[in-house]
Amino acid sequence: MIHITKAGGIGLAQSFGPEQRKLFETTAGRLFEDIAARGGAPADDPELALHPEAVQLLLEVGLLRVDGPTGRYLAVDPQSVQGTVVGPMGQQGAQLIAESSLWSQVFATLGQAYRRSPSTDDGPITELRGERIDRYLQEVVGSAQNELLTAQPQVGRSPAVLKAAVNRDIAALQRGVTMRTLYQHAARRMRATRQYVARVSDEGGEVRTLDEFFDRLIVVDREVAIIPAPGEFGVAIAIRNPAVVAYLVDMFERFWDRARPFTNTESTTLSSIVAEQRAMTVRMLIEGHADATCAKRLGVSPRTYAAYVSALKDEFEAQTRFQLGYRMGQQAAKETRKRTAG
Asked: Among positive and negative, which fits the CA dihedral 249, 253, 254, 258?
């Protein structure tokens, strides 16, 4: 409800809200139109007597005035009255918007304190499920002050997820947060990922790729780490224990040191990446891993992995998977003997 001074100048505060507006949209509005069309109405008009609440509202708003000499009710131009009613509403609306923004800042600050505290009602670990994961990530990344570390395994995030993440990540970079992101080598083949990398790199973000498989990880300001729950799809774990977060950061740094810059397009780097993927494929075949496991660890689809194996068959002139494994094993043993002899 908005409190304004009655247009009649009596100085009493009147409240105009949804109930009064609905009365205008029905009885009071029609009554005003009738009085305006007739050029006024006498105080003892039977129609006015049937709707005393509507008459009183028109008087309070200032759309009717009483002519002193005759005692008649006369209509007043709504344009001259509108500002008296609508103006305070707009002013209070602006004040509410500003106040809501300040409240949001208060809760954001409190949220940062909560996420940094290792001893909350949830303890040092919070389980996140379903849509709550995205909401939590929006909040925690949005409150980052110094650093974001992210590891995205397999072929990176889907185009829809990348589109939603790019604005959030760029906003963090533009307010001075440093950001480093790890992908697997296979992410270089994804157009959406390349576009994302180009955007964040322009804002100062760093992206590298690695041949090894790793689990998803997000670390905010080295205070909060978010990882997937083992064996449960659609469940994440937020960790605030300083020792565990420090351990996860150390793991990230070790991966980062071995990774290759995504933005480097030199042929030597690209050929090295291809060689690393080939070496990993050979190693997993020799170790006897299932195709689904190998594809996941390489960050490629089963079809792409099958193409890798087919290329190796051609290279080793093997007809079957067993023959390929045998010949690769022979070559590995030969190389080992050479290194030992040297």
From this structure: positive
